[in-house]
Amino acid sequence: MGGRGVRNLVVTLVSVLSVPVAAQPLAAAQPSQIQVPTLGAMASAGQLAAPRLTWRDCSTALSPTKQCAWLRVPRRYDRPDGPTVRIALARIPATGSSRQRIGSLVWDAGGPGGISTGIVAEMADRMSTQVRKRFDFVAFDPRGIGESRPALRGCDQPWPVRPALNPLPVWRAVHDRFADVVRIGNRACLEDNQRIAAVMGTNNVARDLDRIRAALGDRKLTFWATSYGTRIGYVYALRYPQRVRAMVMDGSIDPTAGFPALPLVGGTSQDVAFRFIRANQRPLYRTVIRTAAQLTAHPIRLNDGRRFTRWNWLDVVGDLIGFQDAWANVPAIAHLVRTAREGDSEGFDARIVLADHVMDRPNSNVGAGFSVVNCVDYARRLSSRQRIDDVVANARRSPVFGGTLTLLYGSGCIGLDALGPDPIPLVKTASQRARVAAVPVLLANATHDAATPMKWAKRMQRVFGRPMIRYRGTQHIIWRATRSPCVNQPIDKFVVSGKIPRRDRTCAFVEPAQAAASLAGR
Question: Which portions of the chain are predicted below pLDDT 50?
Answer without folding.
Answer: 1-3, 17-46, 516-522
